[in-house]
Specification:
The chain has 345 residues and is of the alpha/beta class. It folds into 2 domains: 34-97; 122-288 and 305-343, 2-enoyl-CoA Hydratase, Chain A, domain 1. The protein is built from 10 helices and 14 strands. It has helices at 2-10, 16-55, 64-78, 83-94, 105-111, 115-118, 153-170, 190-201, 260-268, 333-343, and strands at residues 101-103, 133-137, 140-144, 177-181, 204-211, 214-221, 224-227, 230-234, 248-253, 274-278, 286-292, 298-308, 313-314, 322-323. Strands 1, 5, 6, 7, 8, 11, 12 and 13 form an 8-stranded antiparallel beta sheet that branches. A 6-stranded mixed beta sheet has the order 2-3-4-9-10-14, sandwiched between helices. Helix 7 (153-170) runs parallel beside helix 8. The longest helix has 40 residues, at 16-55.
Length: 345
């Protein structure tokens, strides 16, 4: 801004024609840059529509021609390049789709932990929630499963390792009752969560992704979280096996338990001696896939429903067996109530 001001002062003594020519040239340059920018914005919108029409799980319910025309008019009327993101999110609002969204370029780089693009190494607290464990007495152990906001393979493996090592440490005492806390698990990448919690979830199929007649298993096997036959995350060493096979497990949920946090909750649904305490979950019980657009932003698109290990499909909030409102004014009421209930089991 300072350089521009100096240039204007330097040309102030020239003729009106000179000033007019400069203004015209600057305007033409600005118009050219804006046109190129708007072309890129239109290109992003077109890319998003191709992916949405092909992969969206309710694609047959959408009038794509009308939606696309409305979106183009909206983008052109605003005339701002960054409105491509706003317009794509506006499309999801018209579709009444609450789980899909566009992740801008910088946020996508952070999620993928693209150090080359970011230029820095991100601290772990920006990529994951807190892992916490403790013995609660009376053969009971407590562990929290964190949100995970990265696809970085090395970090995901580290998270899975950390969870299993903590489970092993807690299991070093006589334990046959577990409290698994998902109340602060707002989602992200479910695979390190499942791989890490695997000893508690148990070997084998623990859920499904369902789209029309297609059913893809979610499973845990020997330290690996798998989508069908594809390994999505694994521990760096042999997986841990609980000492006691007959365990009672309490899952704590809240309104903050969302998306991938709900997938982890579903992985326990239908398992014997598992009980849910707390608040209903957020209700994002659909699965997303990610698609990188030409500007390195990322389309996060809902592509299928989710089901538990018995094949039961869930289409909204998960309702606990023992509903209870969150109240942290005098300690942790939900955790205390669950622990008291476990003592009588």
């Amino acid at each position: 801004m300072r350089i521009l001001t100096i240039l204007i002062l330097l040309i102030a003594g020239f003729s009106v024609t000179a000033q007019t020519n400069l203004a015209t040239n600057n305007s033409a340059h600005a118009d050219s840059a804006n046109n190129a920018c708007m072309q890129n914005a239109s290109k992003l919108l077109d890319e998003a529509f191709v992916l949405m029409q092909k992969n969206y799980y309710r694609r047959d319910d959408i009038d794509w021609s009308t939606l696309k025309e409305s979106a183009r008019l909206k983008l052109q009327s605003r005339g701002y390049c960054n409105d491509a993101y706003e317009t794509i999110n506006w499309c999801f609002a018209q579709m009444r789709e609450k789980h899909s969204f566009i992740m801008p370029t910088l946020k996508a780089a952070e999620y993928n932990n693209d150090v080359r693009q970011l230029g820095i190494t991100q601290p772990l607290h920006k990529l994951m929630g807190t892992i916490h464990g403790e013995w609660l007495g009376d053969s009971t152990a407590y562990i929290s499963i964190p949100w995970v906001s990265t696809t970085d393979e090395q970090i995901c493996g580290l998270i899975a390792d950390s969870l299993q090592q903590l489970i092993e440490l807690l299991d070093s005492r006589p334990v046959n009752k577990w409290i698994v806390d998902l109340r602060q698990n707002s989602g992200g990448n479910c695979w390190p969560m499942i791989a890490g919690a695997g000893p508690l979830i148990g070997e084998g199929i623990c859920g499904y992704f369902i789209r029309n007649e297609e059913r893809v298993a979610i499973s845990y096997k020997n330290g690996m979280a798998m989508q069908g036959r594809q390994v999505r995350c694994k521990t760096s060493r042999s997986s841990y096996q609980l000492k006691t096979k007959n365990n009672t497990i309490v899952i704590l949920t809240s309104n903050n338990t969302s998306s991938s946090g709900e997938i982890v909750a579903l992985s326990f649904k239908g398992k014997e001696q598992v009980h849910f305490w707390g608040e209903a979950t957020a209700g994002f019980t659909t699965a997303n896939a990610t698609y990188t657009l030409s500007d390195q932003s990322m389309l996060v698109l809902t592509v299928c429903h989710e089901a538990d290990r018995n094949g039961k499909v869930y289409t909204g909030r998960l309702i606990p067996d023992f509903p209870m409102a969150s109240d942290m004014r005098n300690g942790d009421a939900i955790k205390d109530a669950a622990l008291s209930w476990l003592k009588n089991k």
